[in-house]
UniProtKB/TrEMBL annotation:
Lipid bilayer topology: Multi-pass membrane protein
Reactions this protein catalyses: L-proline(in) + Na(+)(in) = L-proline(out) + Na(+)(out)
Keywords, sorted A to Z: Cell membrane, Ion transport, Membrane, Sodium, Sodium transport, Symport, Transmembrane, Transmembrane helix, Transport
Molecular function GO terms recorded: symporter activity
Places the protein is found: Cell membrane
Source organism per UniProt: Aquibacillus salsiterrae
GO biological process: sodium ion transport
Transmembrane segments: 6-26, 47-68, 80-99, 127-144, 164-187, 194-215, 246-265, 277-303, 323-341, 384-401, 407-432, 439-457, 463-484
Full protein name: Sodium:solute symporter family protein
GO cellular component, one term: plasma membrane
Amino acid sequence: MESVTGTLFWTIIIILVAYFGVVVWIGQKGNQFSKSMTGFATARGKVNPLVVGASFAASYSSANLFIGVPGLAYQYGTSVLWYTLGCFGVSWIALLLFAKTFWRYGKKFGGVSTLPEWLGRRYNSKALQVLVTLLILFNVYYIVGQNVGLATIFETVLNIPYTWGIIIGVVITIVYIGLGGAFAQLVTDGLQGVLMAITSVLVLVSLLWTIGGGFNVFGQLSNKLEAIDPSLIGALSNGGPYNSTVAIVAVQFLLFSFVLMPHLLNKVLSVEKEEDLAPFTLSAGVVLFLISTLMVIGGLAARVVAPNLASVDSAIPVYVLEAFPPFVAAIIVVGIISAILSSTDSLYLGITSSIGNDFYKVLAPIFSKKQLAADVLDKNAVRVAKGSLVFVGIATLYVSLDRPDSLAVLIQFSFSAIISGIIAPITLGYLWNKSNGPGAIASLITGTALYVLFTSQNIIENIFIAMFFASLIAFVVMGVVSLLTQKQTVANDQVLTINK
């Protein structure tokens, strides 16, 4: 389908300009809260917990759930609904299990600002803190996925060249995150989460006239998909990442672990009071349900409406243009763009906060010739974090110029590499008093290295199964190394010290 022209084109442009103006204004408003490292990284207590919850769901979703996963649904059919089930059900359960303990530990550690700092305090290990920061750099590929998704929207819908679409997204995001830090990210993502939920509901309602069948619309959709290809309505896909029971189990494991991603778990640290965790998790669950389920159904409907697309990642943009009148389509397109930006800004904030808080603040006192006062060190860390936005932005822009074959696969590779390294240290840090720093470091290196080895050498082709086995081995390694090094370390030293 050709891109839009005329009235629809200018409607989208006007809404986008207004939208970008609002997010930059919010960024400017948040500048007052981002002068310290804690304020820049978390804006703790400055944003309503309901908004923080919606922000969590929006950051979770990204281009993956609005472009990549619907594209896989277009290609492989109903088997992709296993991913949707995990996004809402399994991930939300994990959030309920992890959030309170993570928040309480953060308070005991004196109010940490990032996940690497949390792990560093838990295991009394600056080396671990720095290593986790380096691991988070894998999120550069995650941001690349967002850039590609945004450029795909601009290219498909507005006929804006792919390269310019990437440049626009990178520049806008860097500007408002650089101005307002976590406050800007939380507020804009909260608003984006609500807009994304409305967009998802509209896509679901549109099936009544694009697919037909009234109350039997899903039966009608199933019949039409079967007529195209019977494998499209199977519980398992014919090829692709959902082609076996083991793969489905691995997907659920991945999505349970996904809430441990630094840019998501950091949202818990933005909540000031323990009683605010309830509205935070409720808001996150409701918004996540809407935006994780309904867009995948849109990908299935797109296969019926436009069965011969050259790029599966264009399924949702094309479907929206077919299903809705111009003004509504314009609003939905902006909603999809906001979905992409909501993860991009969170990822930028997560990477740059860790560079300032967990890299500079840890290493600067070691290499400085004179002792740095705490307030000077903190102000310098904020400058480093904000300055690194430019360098990270340029790096992601450069890598994004070479369009990947699959947006979803690229994104899932990046976060699977991180999860493989951090899942054992975080989980055992809660559950096992004998877990210690050497074990956590060994686990982090083992899990990440094995995942990269499995996928890069095609030892395990399915990225979900590769992550499952890399993580499983990481748990074993952490257990063994922790037991072997008990004489040299005290497993719960940091907790005992704080509780004295």
